[in-house]
Amino acid sequence: MTLMEKLAVLTDAAKYDAACTSSGSQRTAGPGSLGSTTMAGICHSFSADGRCISLLKVLFSNCCIYNCQYCVNRVSRETKRASFTPEELAELTIGFYRRNYIEGLFLSSGVLRSPDYTCEQMIRTLELLRNHYQFGGYIHVKAIPGADPLLIEKLGLLADRMSVNIELPSQEGLRLLAPDKSKHSILRPMGYIAGRIVENTRDLTVYRHAPRFAPAGQSTQMIIGATPDSDRQILSLAEGLYRRYGLKRVFYSAYLPVTENALLPAPGTKPPLLREHRLYQADWLLRYYGFQADELLDEQHPDLNPLLDPKCGWALRHMELFPVEINRAPYEMLLRVPGIGVKSARRIVRARRASSLDFTALKKLGVVWKRAQYFVTCRGRMTPGLRVTPESVLRALAEPQGLSLLEETPEQLSFFSGASCGSRAGKEEPHESPLSLLA
Predict the structure, then answer these.
(1) Predicted confidence (pLDDT) per residue in 292-308, tens digit
(2) Which domains can be identified in the chain, with CATH numbers?
(3) Do 187 and 171 meet the contact criterion of CB atoms below 8 Å apart?
C-alpha cells in the first residue's frame, strides 16, 4: 500500500473524532525550528470528508484488537486496514506543513497489538517531529487507555493537548458495547494527566524552563444517541469531569449508524444532530454561565427541549424569578437572562455605572432583544403591549428557529408544566451517577 493510499484510509477512519478546536496553547518558533502555535488557534486544513479544520486529523493505525460495537475499526468488522510507520507519518506531516496545507496534527489510533505498543509508536512519531524536524506547531494526541503511565508521561511532554475518550456516558453502555474497556482503564489515564498538569503548573512557577506537560490541557468525547442515556446523565457526567479532572472541553458526537447491531440504532437512522447542538449549548452554560446540571434538567425533565435553547427552557420553568430590573440585577443574574451573553452582561454592568439604561441602550450593548424582552424591565417598565405567558414566550422564541408549533405545542408545553425546580416539595430521588464518577 502506498503512502497516499494509507493516508486516504486513515484520514477517513479518523473523521468520527470530534475534537478539533482552537489550540489553547502558545509556542513560539525558536532559531532553527519549524512552525509555531498561537492561543487563537490554527486554520485552513482539510479532512478526508472535505471539512475545513485546523489539523491533519489522522489515525496512526486503524487495526484494533478491541471489539467496540459502535466503532468502524473494531476487530470483527471487515474493512480495509492500514498502519503508518513513525517515519512515514512524521515525514507526511512536515510535508503537508511546508506546503501550507496544515499547521498542526491531531493523532489518534486503534489499539495495535497492545496499548503500550501503540503508545510507543505514537511517541516515536512525536519525537521525530519535535526533535528531528524541530516542529513547533500544535499537536493534539489521544492517550491510549490501558497504557503505562510512563508512556502517558512521555506523550504529554511532546504534545500540546491530550485527550482520553469516555465514548459512552454510562457503565452499562460500556459493558454492553465496549466489553474490552472498563471505567478504570479510561479514568486512570485521565486522572494521571490531570495530576501531571497541576504538578507542571507548580513547577513552571519555580523553574521557568521546566518541560511543559500538555500545556493546552486535556479533553474528552462522548457519543450521543448510541445508548438510551438521558441528557441529564450526560450533563451530570460532563459536570463531574470538569470539576474532578479540570478538562478544557467535553465534545459531544451524534452517533452516525455505520454498523449493524441489535443494541445500536439501525443503519439509515438520522444522527441526533439537534440533540448534539442542545448539549453543546447546555455545556456552555455549565462552563461560563454558572449553571449546574441539576438546574437545567431534573427527574421530571431528563432531556433538553429540542424547540428551545437550554437557557430559555430554564427561564420558562422559573418565571417566578423574572422579570429582572436591568439597572439593578447582579451580574450573576444577568447571565441567566435569555438573550444576554457574557460580553453583553459585562457591558451592561459597566454602562449602568454612568447612566440608567433603556431599551435602545440594551440593543446597542449587544443584547438579543427579541429574547430578552420577556425577562427584563428597564426603569421598571417592560416593552409596552408585550404579552408574557409561558405559551406566548414559547411560541415567540421557538418560531424564529423555523420550527412549527401547530402540532407540537401541547406536547412541548407539558415540558414547562408542574412545579419549578426551585419549588418542588421534598428532596429529589438520587439518580445513578454515570460511571460512578461522583461516588
Answers:
(1) 999 999 998 899 998 88
(2) 3-260+270-296 (3.20.20.70), 310-416 (no CATH)
(3) no
